[in-house]
Amino acid sequence: MNHKRPATGPLTVTVFVFPGVRLLDVTGPIEVFASANGFGGRYRVRTASEDGAEVTTSAGTRLGADLRVDDVREPCDVLVIPGGPEWETLIKDDALLDVVRRLHEKARCTASVCTGAFLLAAAGLLDGRRAATHWRHSRQLAARFPSVWVKPDAIFVRDGRMMTSAGVSAGIDLSLALVEDHYGAEVARAVAKDMVVFMQRPGSQSQFSVRSQVPHSRRETLRRVLDEVAENPGANHTLSAMARKAGVSVRHMTRLFDEEVGTTPARYVEQVRLEAAQVLLETGDDAMAVVARRTGFGSPESMRRAFVRHLGVTPGAYRTSFRTTGVGAEHPAPEAVSP
Predict the structure, then answer these.
(1) pLDDT of residue 315
(2) Which pLDDT belongs to residue 206?
(3) Is 76 annotated as catalytic?
(4) Per the residue annotation, which of 48, 114, 190, 222 is the catalytic one?
(5) 3-state SS string over the chain?
(6) Could you give all domains of the chain from N- to C-terminal order, each with its CATH number?
(7) What is the pLDDT of residues 226-245, one digit of tens each?
């Protein structure tokens, strides 16, 4: 896919709003596209409700609509389908799903935010496609719509003309990716800086950090060790060093990791170091030797082996790819989430 698409005229963004819609799912993307107009973009953003009337969001805020769905006659470049907390009720609303289908027919790209993916799936628009949603709902999406390939922790996923994103703020990441696609990375970067958000959150990046995925341990000694590794990955975190700091034997420390973390101490440390190196490569210009030293890998070669083993790319290739939102990058098809 080509980045920086030449645009001879304004690009139209239509955001569908409905009763119970989540406010940030709507305003986040709108802010991105509106901000882009100040840095060389040319977007015409409009909201549409089923009957053109204002709607009340899940936060209780009233939100106006620029037009009714029947007035959306010409094709639009981007259609945004936000989500809402009451998605289980929304996907049973046949009239609402019909509106989504009709709007999709006129869109060059249809993008959902958070549980908006459920509306697309219920409308039959994600059959056979990869998709993302809020991590809390990924298994429900997979269970209810087995023909959808759910990538459970991606920030956003692009499959053909469909884009789906994770929870609330991920709609901003998705919108930045579209701005980059339309007008280039420089414009998208300027928008991210203006909004004080990160540009470097590519679609394939996990919604989680390694430390946040570890279940809360009842043992304070283990919690201290886990936190120390996460806070200072470049320090000495051999098994014996961690056991010594915790005041337990090496065998006991190994057993604690197995019971509480579900992995070995060495694997946990490597995962944390890998994540720390990814962040440094995404956001800085330090030499590989500096990144390897700061994150505890010691040498660029050790870091390279870890990247290839876990991510399938070298650190240099990772840095090059993730200097942008990664919207055009090719990623292997993910495993489906088991219902």
Answers:
(1) 93
(2) 52
(3) no
(4) 114
(5) CCCCCCCCCCEEEEEECCCCCCHHHHHHHHHHHHHHHHHCCCEEEEEEECCCCCEECCCCCEECCCEEHHHCCCCECEEEECCCCCHHHHCCCHHHHHHHHHHHHCECCEEECCCHHHHHHHCCCCCCCEECCCHHHHHHHHHHCCCCEECCCECEEEECCEEEECCCCHHHHHHHHHHHHHHCHHHHHHHHHHHCCCCCCCCCCECCCHHHHCCCCCCHHHHHHHHHHHHCCCCCCCHHHHHHHHCCCHHHHHHHHHHHHCCCHHHHHHHHHHHHHHHHHHHCCCCHHHHHHHCCCCCHHHHHHHHHHHHCCCHHHHHHHCCCCCCCCCCCCCCCCCC
(6) 11-195 (3.40.50.880), 210-321 (1.10.10.60)
(7) 888 888 889 999 999 999 98
